[in-house]
């Protein structure tokens, strides 16, 4: 009986962690296929999810977000909040935005988790008009 309860508890914890996106993720550039940065995602007290660049893996042209047009303009890339206001909706995280610091553009964002991968979609207007990236769980 104890083994059954333990197996159930471990399975339940596994299911809960599967649908979560909190933690550190290695971003993979969808154009070059190379690892670009580490983004840390966390949940704020408002119940929404946010993410910031915690480490750069490729040296950028400029260490600041010179292309950004909002409160992030000219802020350092390391520590820059690029994901804002995502809400969990079933197995999907949506309703927030993601900013591409290289282009300075902000897009609507949807994230789903598939094991140790995040499927990140940034889009304008409708989801059909956008880009996908796969982020990998960082150690």
UniProtKB/TrEMBL annotation:
Residues 1-19 form the signal peptide. The keyword Cell membrane does not apply. Keywords: Signal. Residues 23-136 form the DUF2147 domain. It comes from the Bacteria. This is Uncharacterized conserved protein, DUF2147 family. InterPro entries: DUF2147. It comes from Epilithonimonas zeae.
